[in-house]
Specification:
The chain has about 500 residues and is α+β, with helices and mostly antiparallel strands. About 25% of the residues lie in helices and about 45% in strands.
Length: about 500
């Protein structure tokens, strides 16, 4: 429990993975970094939790033998519980090419429990019992944990080494013939040091190899989108083992978005992440354009970008109207044959939109065909004309509640009449109608989807503090500090 809480605070913030398929791309779509500044914050948070944990810890019963002036004494220590604990020094440090080293030193603790003794004095068996108080000072513990990944891209953790030492341990016996045993308390305390040190390491090792390893195996392998995009998931598998230097911990993740019901790999791969040396903030997250483009590729293949609309589907304050009267002013044949009829509009995306991130800018290039039909009473729809549109939009991203959201505006568009069943159509009218349609119908719909956001990995009770979002060639960089709220458990 202890080491799961210590390490999971930040590991779970950066490790959410998928475990069903082989990982082909050598480069990550997502990358995280936890600096030493971030690890120091984790340390301060972990110390508070560790103190709480120690004060409510029950120590396993133990037994042993200690040499005394009256002979070897067999002892049993039972019902032991820590009454108080102080940990003035605690650290979590990256170990290059290995993992993490968790250390505490200069710690002290007070323990109460029950004792039983037995020894033989000449031919007489002597047994006694009572309670005891132990005060341990100069307690130190060093645990090194190796972090890696398994064949499915899931994180792994195991204890590499553990060293525990108690510099000074004093025992005071109460009850029974305690006045006699207190004369030999130092001899008995020396025998207890090794046992308690071994228990400390055993508990730390079990916490890593069992509790924390189980926590890693239970990590949710995918993160779902919400709302209208719930049919998609994002893959956070590790594409390589976590990387450790003397300044930070770094993890690299797949970052692909695909349909929940089927996985169709995109025809492109992530590029190498740009080199970054910054370590002044606690956490850094790089989101490459690969992530966004797998999203757009999936939207295209799923048909999500194809839409059918009638007047009722348009915003109430829209200046664009799906009624032939709107078009009849500029198209004589519509005025003569189909005046004042309801219309339908079918939008078909003809290419997967492509998102490009450059220094300080995000653009999306997309294109499609918009087909318009009239609805004569009690008759089948009558096709009128098709517009072919290619456009570039600008996306302004921002962070809201651990999701990347944004707002889209039109940078440029090109439009032409692909075919017409109502004769010649003025280019001026085509451009005017398209501009009104995009501004009042298409862009608001896109912004409603973008507002649902790209979910980032989350940890309960963890939030970003003063996050900054920066655009650089090929990726977005999020730099933030953290705030973690301790639970009462």
């Amino acid at each position: 429990m202890t080491f799961r809480r210590i390490i999971a605070v930040f590991v779970l913030a950066s490790v959410s993975v998928r475990c069903t398929e082989a990982i082909a791309d050598p480069n990550p779509g997502l990358q995280t970094r936890i600096s030493q500044h971030g690890l120091d914050y984790v340390t301060s948070t972990a110390v508070k939790k560790y103190r709480h944990f120690l004060r409510h810890l029950s120590i396993d019963d133990t037994s042993g033998r200690a040499g005394t002036p009256v002979g070897d004494v067999n002892y049993d220590l039972q019902q032991m519980a820590i009454q108080d604990a102080d940990i003035p020094n605690f650290s979590i440090k990256p170990q290059p090419n290995v993992g993490l080293k968790v250390s505490l030193w200069g710690a002290s603790a007070k323990v109460k429990g029950d004792w039983k003794y037995s020894y033989k004095l000449v031919f007489i068996d002597i047994k006694d019992s009572g309670s005891f108080d132990v005060q341990a000072k100069g307690l130190s513990l060093d645990v090194v944990a190796r972090l890696g990944k398994d064949k499915d891209g899931k994180p792994t953790i195991s204890a590499v080494s553990c060293n525990a030492h108690i510099n000074d341990l004093r025992v005071k016996f109460n009850g029974g013939a305690s006045w006699l045993y207190n004369l030999f308390a130092d001899n008995i305390a020396d025998g207890m040091k090794g046992d308690l040190s071994n228990q400390l390491c055993q508990g730390a090792t079990d916490g890593i190899n069992n509790d924390l390893a189980d926590t890693f195996s239970d990590i949710k392998v995918v993160t779902s989108f919400g709302g209208d995009l719930d049919f998609m998931v994002i893959d956070y598998r590790l594409v390589e083992p976590p990387k450790f230097t003397d300044k930070y911990l770094e993890t690299a993740h797949k970052g692909e978005i695909y349909q929940r019901s089927q996985h169709k790999a995109p025809p492109f791969s992530p590029k190498a992440m740009p080199e970054q040396k910054e370590t002044s903030r606690m956490v850094y997250l790089w989101v490459s354009d690969y992530v966004a483009n797998t999203l757009l590729y999936t939207l295209q293949n799923s048909g999500f970008l194809n839409k059918f609309a009638q007047q009722i589907d348009l915003p109430k304050d829209s200046k664009f109207a799906l009624n032939t009267s709107y078009f009849a002013i500029f198209v004589k044949e519509i005025h003569d044959k189909y005046n004042n009829l309801a219309m339908t509009m079918t939008m078909n995306s003809t290419m997967a939109p492509k998102l490009t991130i450059t220094e300080g800018n995000i653009t999306v290039d997309t294109g499609g065909v918009v087909s318009f039909s009239a609805l004569p009473p009690n008759q089948n729809p009558v096709h009128l004309f098709n517009f072919r549109i290619n456009m570039t939009v600008v996306l302004a991203p921002k962070l809201v509640d651990l999701s990347i959201v944004g707002n889209v505006t039109i940078k440029r568009f090109d439009v032409s009449v692909e075919n017409s069943d109502v004769g010649q159509i003025s280019l001026f009218f085509v451009q005017l109608a398209t501009d009104t349609m995009l501004t009042n119908t298409v862009i608001p719909w896109i912004n409603a989807q973008v507002a649902q956001g790209l979910p980032l990995p989350k940890v309960d009770r963890l939030k970003f503090v003063k996050p900054e979002l920066k655009l650089t060639d090929g990726c977005m960089v999020i730099a933030t500090d953290l705030e973690y709220t301790l639970s009462d458990k």
